[in-house]
Amino acid sequence: MLSLKKTALHEHHRRLGARLVDFAGWEMPIQYASQLDEHHAVRTHAGMFDVAHMVAVDLHGANVRAFLARLLANDVAKLKVPGKALYACLLREDGGVLDDLIAYYLDESWFRLVVNAGTADKDCAWFERHAPAFGVEVRRRNDLGILAVQGPQARALAAGELPAAAESLGAFHACRDGELFVGRTGYTGEDGYEIVAPHATLVRLWVTLQAKGVKPCGLGARDTLRLEAGMNLYGQDMDESVTPLESGLAWTVSMTDASRDFIGRAALEAQQKTPHRRQVGLLLEGRGVLRAHMAVRFASGQTGEITSGGFGPTLKRSIALARVPQTDEVACEVQIRNEWQPARVLKPPFVRNGKTLIPESTS
């Protein structure tokens, strides 16, 4: 049996009594004491997550922009200012999603990607496969880890530990000071930073921020936060079997430049011309809790399936993301323990910046 990989913060998780689980081959904290407390800390104050299982990949070369124009469905031509970031999908030729990632433009010969833990090996192999045609060097930065600090007070509490330029960063921008790299991005629906740095630096930041009152949070709270924020989880809400058009990610596909032949473009153009499934949000109006793989049905007879679901602690309601056929129907039912419970289609997100976005008529 292969042993699980561990981040540099592993001993700190153990000292805090974290419940550790296998996540994509890494032993990671699912929660410390109370997952609900961790969720609410991020919504109301500040929390931090060890996400050093995710991987930074640096791409170098004179043709790196052309390389990413070919590999990403979103268009890196949008990145004109150093430090600007872009959320994008990496696709197969058939439009299936290999991964969703963030691309940072640092200069014309250097872009940084942050990819998911479970797809990092596959992603890097894909980059290496296509890099020679563009003369691009692919450098997987295993020497760096990532710490996410999120919540309405996160930036204020972290500011003194980061480069001065971090305080004035706009959303989806980044700055760096040597190997310390700070992006104003996140996966919780709250403001904050994602800090990429050498592992020893992340350990120091963890200890310092905890002393300032930033609450350590596990992957359980990260999941309920991202679900309330309507953000996809790779492997649940999308994977290689579905396209961005079926996963609520059509907004990440840029077709503006007709000459940009990105991998998967032809498949998406064909899919646009035919009826296809779409992703919606669901709010449970009956009893129970929505979970992944539960069946969804509409009065018309059309059916779908929940991809991510759970109890939203901020909302105090059960919510989900689901893949359903094209329909204007709002009322539906979800099968929970062999009973069909009423639910309603809503457009995500459900919560953003601490505010509930569910219309009053359904709350």
Describe this structure in words.
Helix 2 packs across helix 7. This protein is α+β, with helices and mostly antiparallel strands. A 6-stranded mixed beta sheet has the order 10-11-12-9-3-13. It has a 6-stranded antiparallel barrel with strand order 14-17-16-15-18-19. A 5-stranded antiparallel beta sheet has the order 5-6-7-4-8, covered by helices on one side. The model has no long low-confidence stretch (mean pLDDT 97). It is built from 8 helices and 21 strands.
Give me the secondary-structure topology.
Blueprint (H helix, E strand, L loop, with lengths): L9 H6 L3 E5 L2 E6 L3 H10 L2 E4 L4 E6 L3 H8 L13 E7 L5 E11 L2 E6 L4 H11 L6 E4 L3 E7 L3 H5 L15 E4 L2 E4 L8 E7 H13 L3 E3 L1 H10 L36 H8 L5 E7 L10 E3 L5 E10 L4 E8 L6 E6 L2 E8 L4 E2 L2 E2 L7
Parallel strand pairs: 3-13
Antiparallel strand pairs: 1-2, 3-9, 4-7, 4-8, 5-6, 6-7, 9-12, 10-11, 11-12, 14-17, 14-19, 15-16, 15-18, 16-17, 18-19, 20-21
Helix pairs in contact: 2-7
Task: Give structural attributes.
globular, six-stranded antiparallel barrel, 8 helices, 363 residues, alpha+beta, six-stranded mixed sheet
Helix and strand composition category? alpha+beta
Tell me the β content.
Answer: 25-35%
Mean pLDDT metric = 97
- Quaternary structure type: single chain
Helix content: 10-25%
Order of helices and strands: HEEHEEHEEEHEEHEEEHEHHEEEEEEEE
Question: How many individual helices?
Answer: 8
Strand order of the largest sheet: 10-11-12-9-3-13
Low-confidence stretches: none
